[in-house]
Write a structure and sequence with these properties.
The protein has no helices and eight strands. It is mostly beta strands and about 120 residues long. A hairpin with a 2-residue loop joins strand 1 and strand 2.
Length: about 120
Amino acid sequence: MNFKDLTNKTLITDSDIDWEDLGAGVKRKIMAYDENLMLVKVEFEKDAIGSIHNHPHLQMSYVAKGSFEVSMGDEKKVLNEGDVFFAPSNVFHGVVCLEAGLLIDIFNPHREDFLK
């Protein structure tokens, strides 16, 4: 299934979407999106890094599995399964995976750069 097939879909089956290998122990699946909202699954191997970055989008991330050291602005905290972090617009943030894990990321608006 390509990204355009996901626009405005309301019922999505995980097995219909392929993982995108981002390298260095990180891969993602864009699960659903429209112009206002995007949900992405990001899987990390132990010690993989989600580099420090920022973007204008609002982001919420749910730790579905594993353990992550999360950097948000000047703060760092270890978050585990069931925890959440919120990245406001343009705040620098990133993660280091301490135990193989999965993040569920939600963006507003959708990340056009992920669709290229």
